[in-house]
Amino acid sequence: MPRETNAAKRARAIEFCDRLEEMYGRVECFLDHESPYRLVISVLLSAQTTDAQVNKVTPELFRRWPSPEALAAASPEEVAEVIRSLGFYKSKARHAVEAAQMIVSDYGGEVPHTMAELTRLPGVGRKTANIVLNVSFGIVEGIAVDTHVNRIAHRLALSPKTHEKEPLKTEQDLLKLLPREYWRDVNHQWIRFGREVCSAKAPRCAECPMADICPSVGKC
Ligand code: SF4
Asked: Is 80 exceeded by the pLDDT of residue 115?
């Protein structure tokens, strides 16, 4: 099979996003995003865990520690108790408390809104920062590549196989392919598609509306 040109790959990527826009329209963030503080902590807790599991523990977490100041004064052990149903709960509790402490000490209790400042917070990487910037502040600097976005990008061959385990590189590949106006909605629309159609274990290729533009159809 001839190698696909960049122009053809870009056209497929745009077509994929256009179809998702038609299917879903705007998809809201699945996590508690009542405030930037709640969102940054919720996303931090969501690594290697489903959003549904995170949403089960955050009501009690934010009832007990409703502000960065309150969480900054908590002990990681008591936070760990509340979130113990999540994977890696001990390190997540430590990061959450340390992130709250930095929000209070360095940013006057307000979650910062630049990529450089957000990624200084313990436990906050580019994925989390992209989500917080986008959802809480309406700032689009990149694309949050989580497990769903990464899997779909690679099934669609929009990022080389060698980047499959490197979401930061996958993000750069997607940023090069997609015009900036598409970046805002990729994360939430692709997550929904990943849950409903192109799941990790049982992709529904036979009924997938993307089958004609997907090189992995029937191969996963
Ligand atoms: S055809 Fe299959 S692998 Fe491709 S996007 Fe659809 S469900 Fe995923």
From this structure: yes
Q: Is 219 a catalytic residue?
A: no
For ligand 1, mutation pick of 197, 199, 201, 219 (most atoms within 8 Å of CB): 197
Q: pTM of this prediction?
A: 0.93
For residue 90, indicate whether it is catalytic: no
Query: Which of these, 130, 129, 126, 123, lies nearest to 101 by C-alpha position?
Result: 123
List domains and CATH numbers for the chain: 6-27+143-213 (1.10.1670.10), 36-137 (1.10.340.30)
Please name the residue whose Cα sits nearest to atom 8 of ligand 1: 198
Tell me: pLDDT of 139 over 70: yes
What's the sign of the alpha-carbon dihedral 144, 147, 148, 154? positive
For residue range 197-210, list pLDDT tens digits in order: 999 999 999 999 99
Candidates 51, 146, 173, 185; catalytic one:
146
Note whether 28 and 188 are within 8 A (CB).
Answer: yes
**Residue-level pLDDT at 3:** 84
